[in-house]
Q: What sequence folds into this?
């Protein structure tokens, strides 16, 4: 995925987006910083946070939410559920049928609101922690 031309493209922002697109961990800003720092020695953690904010604002990345006090990010922006392990704090994409967006019309009819998206997180123990 490449950055839209809405804002000035930067190598660091593109590297950040590429790192997110290739990750299945739903990384934190700190995890991304540690991954990119060897290639970009001048990179600061503040730059990572700012650029993540830009990527979220532009709809290229979504926040999965705060897990154990740290915000986690995902480059898959289509609505999909996540499983969060309460023991190891891993975040796993779940491949479940999307029944929620099919209810938008009913939600709008009953509440008067206009749904535009949803976030679903299921908590429990992952397969590794159950063993």
A:
């Amino acid at each position: 995925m490449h950055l839209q031309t809405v804002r000035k493209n930067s190598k660091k922002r593109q590297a950040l987006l590429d790192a997110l697109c290739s990750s299945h961990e739903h990384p934190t800003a700190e995890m991304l910083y540690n991954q990119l720092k060897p290639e970009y020695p001048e990179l600061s953690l503040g730059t990572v946070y700012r650029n993540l904010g830009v990527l979220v604002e532009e709809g290229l990345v979504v926040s999965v939410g705060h897990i154990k006090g740290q915000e986690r990010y995902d480059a898959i922006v289509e609505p999909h559920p996540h499983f969060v392990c309460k023991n190891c704090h891993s975040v796993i994409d779940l491949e479940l049928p999307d029944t929620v967006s099919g209810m938008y019309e009913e939600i709008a009819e009953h509440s008067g609101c206009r749904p535009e998206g949803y976030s679903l997180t299921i908590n429990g123990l992952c397969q590794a922690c159950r063993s």
Residues 45-57 form the longest helix (13 residues).
